[in-house]
Write a structure and sequence with these properties.
58% strand, globular, five-stranded antiparallel beta sheet, 5 strands, single chain, mainly beta, 64 residues
Length: 64
Amino acid sequence: MIKDETTSEVRVINKNNGIYVVDTSDHQRGIKQCPYKIGDIIIVKYKEDSLKIRVINKKYKIKD
C-alpha cells in the first residue's frame, strides 16, 4: 500500500549539528541546511513512518 503524503504546519524546535528538528504528528524529523530559525513555523510534507521530509513554505516567524 502506498502511503499518502501529509502536509502540516510545524515549529522548528531545535538545531543540532546543522540539522534543524521539527515535531510532526508521528515523530520528530530533521531537516538539513534549513534556512529558518528556532521558533519559526514552516509548512512541510512527509509520509508517515518515513524519515523523509520536504519544506514547502515558511508560514511565519515567532517574535523574540
